[in-house]
């Protein structure tokens, strides 16, 4: 089985994340995509507004009805900040027999050489780089072990981010349709982002 991992803060999860996952799934021939909220240092300037439990709950509500999208709480369960290599090793222990691919923005691909223990990582997993229209990426400039671990998927541009959603909410504007209905309702009911 081939599983794509979509990691993020998901503060909140929005339709850009879901469409990206759907496209990665189709273009890379994945069987499932697992959405993994990551831990963020609490007293950073850009610390999440929603709690870890709320971020996970929003992911669950967003993917619940989908036949092959699932929530993955592995990094929240572990606590602290996780290196990808450690998460991957834990995943492989807990879920033997699955091939994992990390779904990342194409702009992140060029930074893969700087990732912690990247040689070990490219021996264990592959990466799916989501290309924005017009974005130029020269894979040939990267070390061969990275080139071999990366496949690219064409993604339409969706000008939406969690930051934009939080800022609309702070201004009292509606975020309906930018997040799945059940996430929208959860945000309203729990007064997250200053509803
Ligand atoms: P923030 O605005 O808070 O930084 P974000 O919307 O970028 O959040 P993250 O949770 O940080 O969301 O993103 C998780 C992953 O989803 C990242 O790899 C990010 O590049 C990708 N992503 C986010 N928004 C989009 C989008 N509109 N189209 C494609 N990929 C996206």
Task: Describe the structure in your own words.
The protein is α/β, with parallel strands linked by helices. Helix 4 (84-94) packs parallel to helix 6. The protein has helices at 15-28, 52-63, 74-78, 84-94, 106-109, 118-124, 144-149, 162-170, 181-190, and strands at residues 2-8, 32-37, 69-71, 99-105, 126-131, 150-154. The N and C termini lie far apart (41 Å). The protein has a six-stranded parallel β-sheet. The chain contains nine helices and six strands. The mean pLDDT is 95. The chain is globular and about 50 Å long. The site of adenosine-5'-triphosphate has 16 residues, from helix 1, strand 4 and helix 8.
What level of helicity do the residues show? Answer: 40-55%
Shape: globular
Radius of gyration over all CA atoms, rounded: 17 Å
* CATH architecture title: 3-Layer(aba) Sandwich
Describe what is shown at a glance.
The chain is an alpha/beta fold and 195 residues long. The chain has nine helices and six strands; from the N terminus they run βαβαβααβααβαβαα.
How does the SSE layout of this entry go?
Blueprint lengths: L1 E7 L6 H14 L3 E6 L14 H12 L5 E3 L2 H5 L5 H11 L4 E7 H4 L8 H7 L1 E6 L12 H6 E5 L7 H9 L10 H10 L5
Parallel strand pairs: 1-2, 1-4, 2-3, 4-5, 5-6
Helix pairs in contact: 2-9, 4-6
The structure holds adenosine-5'-triphosphate.
Features:
globular, 6-stranded parallel β-sheet, 6 strands, 9 helices, 40% helix, Rossmann fold, 17% strand, binds adenosine-5'-triphosphate, alpha/beta, 195 residues
């Amino acid at each position: 089985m081939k599983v794509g991992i979509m990691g993020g803060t998901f503060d909140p999860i929005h339709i850009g994340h879901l469409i990206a996952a759907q496209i990665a799934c189709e273009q890379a021939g994945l069987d499932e995509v697992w959405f993994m909220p990551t831990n963020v240092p609490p007293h950073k300037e850009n610390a999440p507004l929603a709690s870890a439990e709320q971020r996970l709950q929003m992911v669950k509500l967003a993917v619940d009805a989908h036949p092959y999208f699932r929530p993955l709480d592995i990094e929240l369960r572990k606590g602290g900040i996780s290196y990808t290599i450690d998460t991957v090793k834990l995943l492989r222990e807990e879920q033997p027999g699955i091939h994992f691919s990390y779904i990342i923005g194409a702009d992140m691909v060029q930074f893969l050489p700087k990732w912690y223990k990247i040689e070990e990582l490219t021996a264990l997993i592959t990466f799916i780089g989501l290309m924005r229209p017009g974005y130029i990426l020269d894979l040939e400039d990267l070390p061969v072990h990275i080139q071999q671990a990366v496949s690219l998927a064409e993604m339409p541009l969706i000008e939406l981010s969690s930051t934009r959603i939080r800022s609309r909410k702070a201004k009292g504007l509606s975020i309906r349709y930018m997040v799945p209905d059940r996430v929208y309702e959860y945000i309203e009911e729990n007064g997250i982002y200053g509803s």
